[in-house]
Amino acid sequence: MNPYGSVGQFHYGQGRYIEAIQEFTRELGNSPDDATIYAWIALSHTHLDNPKPALENAKKAVSLEPDNDFAFYSLAHSHLVANQYKKAEEAIRKAIEIEPYFAGYFGTLAATLGQQGHWRAALEAAETGLQLDPENENCARIRAHALSLAGRSKDAVVAAQETIEENPDSSHAHATLGWVRLRQGDHKAAQSHFAEALRLDPSEELARDGLLDSLRSRFPPYRWIIQFYAWQAQFSKGGQLVILIAILAIPRILRAIGRNNPQWQPFLIPIGVCFSFLIWFTWIGEPLTNITLLAHPLGRLALEKHVRFETIVMAIYLGLALVSFGLGFLVGPGVFIAAGCLFVGLVLMALSAKIDSTRWLRHALFGGTAALSGIAAIAFWLISFIKL
To answer: Which of 16, 64, 196, 387 yields a CA-CA distance of 20 to 30 A from 168?
Structure first.
């Protein structure tokens, strides 16, 4: 065994991915056509969330040895990090075609299928992997997730608990049970499992995101939304689209029924308002509930730095909007309009905070919205006080 390759794999196994890349790169000087080393470099980059160099090295590995299953495995993980789930599925299926008896490949296949919303197929792939290796933790964890999102929540709890029993020091296993509990609506139990996962590994992203969602789920609307997403995940993509269209149409249908039957309006209006609120809450609920996390010690620590800053700005705007609304009764309509500007700015900031794009674009939209709504509010404040 070459010295740098073994040291690189040691660093990789210890989670020191930068050092692993350095060792593997050094080894390429002696073996420039070794596809396996390129594959290790690609996998190291996936753990650092660097999709571009990961894909470059994985593709190089595949080009050097088109029959190397490990090269295709690294390519699949590189596509996963780049959110290219269909390409990831194609790559891991190629790896399985070359080596059909390695359980880990079926775990990766299950992950790619799950990311595409094919949870029943993901469950089948995970169970195939467990038949090859009953102790494979990755397959066991994905099986628990798949059971949860395929509508078999009780089986999911049992599967996740068994994974913890076999891997008590695994942060991934505790995070999995946390998500299963959260989808069931038990946010308190979920919070304890996420906290344990973070104790074992403070860098565990799945646990950090879960902890934040479990804290947000103290508010029933947010808890209902998580359970709704878990429920609709068991349907096909077409079925999910039909459900979404039906929910968006409900307020319109209720208004039409109310116009034709005025005597029913006292009952229909509250129902329509509730549905409209829940629809809006699916878009802005996460950033707005982050405001409450600022007062929670765990939530404040779990929020990323830039998210915490955005949340503080939104909290200031919310406070100023409420104060402006109260002063509107004393000062005049201009301050009411200022409150409206701040509320609109708050909602738009919350929407921009949900944009899944490059960070600079998200920051530009958030900052621009904050500046424009703030300037408009100040203008109406000044107009009102000048009139006085």
So the answer is: 16
DSSP type of residue 152: -
Burial class (CB in 10 A: 0-12, 13-18, 19+), 152: middle
Eight-state DSSP code of residue 117: T
pLDDT in tens, 75-112: 999 999 999 999 999 999 999 999 999 999 999 999 99
Q: Are 46 and 77 in contact (CB under 8 A)?
A: yes
Question: Residue 90 class from Cβ within 10 Å (0-12 exposed, 13-18 middle, 19+ buried)?
Answer: middle
Are 4 and 19 spatial neighbours (Cβ–Cβ below 8 Å)? no
Task: Tell me the residue ranges of DSSP E strands in the chain.
Answer: none
d(CA 384, CA 388): 7
Tens digit of each residue's pLDDT (9 = 90 or more) over 121-131 = 999 999 999 99
* pTM for this entry: 0.75
Query: For residues 83 and 235, what is the distance between their CA atoms, to the nearest angstrom?
Result: 22
Looking at residue 264, what DSSP letter applies?
A: G
**Residue 309, C-beta contacts closer than 8 angstroms, at least 6 positions apart:** none
